[in-house]
């Protein structure tokens, strides 16, 4: 199975900050990587697919990059609604696997 | 508007069974792969199973193979997950999710809670 490791596990930041979350795959996955946002009690929301393509309706302050084993999700100017947990997911091969999550909290 | 609404969760004793359902609307359900993903308390997301559009291909994560069965009814726009021999470690929120042309997920339901406890 491909292991996905996110860092950091928790990130404290302020409104307006630029933040970056990293996701590393245990083996190369080309660009078959997605990012999701989840708030407590809510459905996960798709943000990015194929590593860098923004899902329709997602604000442009979200961006993704990377290929192979190393990927990043960047939020350029944090807004109040961005405080949530973020997950990366590889879909290069089965079983589909997720990172453990990064909780983004208000400093 | 795409909508996925799960139901069927509850409190079950270890060894019991449960059938989860997901009602889909707002899209041509019969043309999409669909998945079940769960999140156990204090843990991250775990993909557990998926099914192709006509129901002839099913894939499972090894940890649940033999105890979980995914199925679909395209006439009723519904997805199901039968869970047998429930274990405490099956306690989780179970989400149904629509897959993209590859295996990412573009829409998710809000989930149904399964608690396995004596």
Keywords:
heterodimer, A: 107 residues, mainly beta, seven-stranded mixed β-sheet, four-stranded antiparallel β-sheet, 11 strands, globular, B: 118 residues, 0% helix
Give the low-pLDDT segments of chain A.
none
Pattern of helices and strands of chain A: EEEEEEEEEEE
What is the beta-strand fraction of chain B? over 45%
Query: What gap, in angstroms, lies between the N and C termini of chain A?
Result: 36 Å
> Gyration radius of chain A, to the nearest Å?
13 Å
Spatial shape of chain B: globular
| Number of DSSP E strands of chain B | 11
Rg of chain B over CA atoms, rounded to whole Å, is 13 Å
Q: What distance separates the N and C termini of chain B?
A: 40 Å
Q: What is the approximate shape of chain A?
A: globular
Q: Could you tell me the number of beta strands of chain A?
A: 11
